[in-house]
Write a structure and sequence with these properties.
The complex is a heterodimer. Chain A is an alpha/beta fold. Chain A has helices at 16-19, 43-51, 91-99, 122-141, 158-168, 193-201, 227-247, 250-253, 268-283, 294-301, 317-325, 354-369; strands at 3-4, 23-27, 106-109, 147-152, 174-180, 206-209, 259-262, 302-305, 330-331. Chain B is elongated and about 55 Å long. Classes of the chains: A alpha/beta, B mainly beta. Strand 1 (3-4) of chain A pairs antiparallel with strand 8 of chain B.
Chain lengths: 372, 137
């Protein structure tokens, strides 16, 4: 028996019963071999990929900015499949470690491969996005219908992005459109508006998963020195995106747009809304296109996923934080197979009331994605 | 509490470990420089199979840019979130006052004394000429 201090609630366990039929809003599938994408690329792009490869906005091509937690490249150490290959590349093992473990009803895949969304060569980027979309269907959704795909796009190629969204419209195997968190410009900027309109018009929410490369320093205060520091900078990026979407008036112009922020934390949301509201009351004449308080736009349009769940010093503070954000706006996620993934039984260090637990682990996601 | 024979000494060379099941609980038995230690195979943070993690050292520093790797091979790092525990005591490195992993007393006994009993050896046959790892659970 392990001994755990009283600051961590011993009631934090979520019963298996309440997990049956839960939805996981952040799963990362990988390929066993990069060549898996070839069959979904036109010969021209297959050749291009082989001869020239990716050109990202990152100054260090082919290298993560940080070789995280080596060995293991940022993966859960026990997630390497017994048959070999990258964590997340073996469906049978993913079923054993994740999908079947607690009777998952649906799992939302957010592929972080192909890098089409970051690609500087926009035509190649569009081709890679299209390939990863087809790859998700063929390699994952077909053998395991509980897994849902995310539409990859490169927002800097608006025509191709809109065409990709329209091509996938009506296909219920796709749950959402995945957009890089870090981009050349904040997502609320006018240049991206047609893409956001196409998402909303076709019933797709937008998912912003942490990461991506912008080519700019990843914090507003310059480049960070440590991965620890970088990880907190993802929160800053999320705050910048939410602020941009609100202040640029996106939610006035695209009133049915829904956005889910994945893996960027959530305890910061109350503080951001308090500040935005305060300044709005003083600066509203600069942004007369806003008709409501920033907090109201955020409450109506922004959802968040849970992992990695914040662990406040006083475990009970988690409940008031979730209350402020809204119990109907928070959706459970594991981030399998990454190193910092959450186990649904122990992710929260405080007991969550049964009615809210159902919302958080299942009902919110069912409603958000329109699953049966 | 009873004494359980869980392995022969040769089964777990220095730097290696073996996960055994004793009275329904999984326990990781480790050989650190020919001393044996045993911890329960469950991380107190989120329940991962702790004993499948890596044995690492303790990285210490007084100032950025200067690092010391101490106690090499004596810290067990959880395969999920990287929480580190002292293999000798089960004490958490990041939260030493509040979090620790249950550890068990381990001893090495010659087969000659074990055959006299009392001990429990469900899976390890004991012979007089061997040395055995015994865990108190």
């Amino acid at each position: 028996m392990n001994v755990i201090a009283p600051t961590v609630s011993s009631q934090a366990d979520v019963s298996i019963q309440s997990l049956i039929g839960y939805v996981d809003c952040d799963i990362h599938p990988y390929f066993k071999d990069p060549a898996e994408l070839d069959e979904f690329l036109a010969p021209k792009w297959r050749e291009h990929r082989r001869e020239y490869g990716a050109r990202s906005r990152s100054p260090m091509a082919y290298a993560a900015q940080y070789p995280r937690l080596s060995p293991g490249v940022g993966m859960r150490q026990d997630a390497f499949p017994p048959t070999g290959g990258h964590p997340g590349s073996d469906l049978a093992f993913m079923r054993e470690q994740l999908i079947d473990l607690f009777g998952m009803a649906h799992g939302i895949m957010l592929p972080l491969l192909g890098r089409g969304g970051d690609e500087r060569n926009l035509e190649f980027g569009a081709a890679m996005c299209n390939a990863v979309n087809d790859w998700q269907l063929a390699h994952w959704c077909a053998p395991e219908p509980r897994l849902k795909a995310s539409i990859q796009i490169n927002v800097d190629h608006a025509e191709a992005a809109v065409a990709e969204i329209e091509k996938r419209a009506g296909d219920r195997r796709f749950a959402q459109v995945q957009i890089q968190q870090r981009g050349l410009e904040p997502l609320g900027r006018h240049r991206y508006r047609k893409i956001l309109e196409a998402c909303a018009a076709n019933g797709f929410p937008i998912a912003m998963h942490l990461g991506g490369t912008s080519g700019h320093a990843s914090t507003a205060g310059g480049w960070p020195s440590y991965y620890h520091e970088e990880h907190h900078a993802y929160v800053q990026s999320m705050e910048a995106i939410v602020t941009s979407l609100v202040v640029e008036g996106v939610f006035e112009q695209v009133p049915n747009l829904r956005v889910v922020l994945v893996e960027g934390g959530f305890a910061w949301i109350p503080a951001l809304t308090w500040r935005l509201d305060k300044h709005f009351l003083r600066l509203r004449s600069e942004v007369p296109h806003l008709k409501r308080l920033p907090s109201e736009y955020i409450r109506d349009h922004i959802w968040v996923t849970t992992q990695p769940v914040e662990e406040p010093e006083r475990a009970g503070d988690m409940l008031s934080t979730l209350e402020w954000i809204g119990w109907d706006r928070v959706m459970f996620s594991t981030d399998y197979p990454h190193w910092d993934q959450d186990d649904p039984r122990y992710a929260f260090k405080v007991a969550i009331p049964e009615a809210n637990k159902k919302k958080l682990f299942r009902d919110n996601a069912l409603a958000f994605y329109g699953f049966e | 509490m009873a004494r359980h024979v869980v392995a022969t000494v040769e089964e777990i060379p220095p730097g290696q470990s073996k996960i055994v099941t004793v009275r329904g609980r999984e326990i990781g038995v480790f050989n650190v420089a020919s001393d044996f230690y045993a911890l329960i195979n469950r991380c107190p943070h989120e329940g991962a199979a702790l004993c499948k993690g890596m044995l690492v050292g303790r990285m210490e520093s007084d100032t950025p840019g200067e690092y010391r790797l101490t106690r090499k091979g004596e810290m067990l790092r959880c395969p999920w979130h990287g929480w580190e525990f002292d293999i000798r005591t089960g004490q958490s490195w990041c939260d030493p006052d509040h979090t620790f992993v249950r550890s068990y007393k381990v001893s090495v006994e010659p087969g000659e004394s074990l055959v006299k009993g009392p001990y429990v050896a469900e899976t390890v046959p004991v012979r007089i000429e061997g040395d055995y790892i015994v865990v108190d659970v």
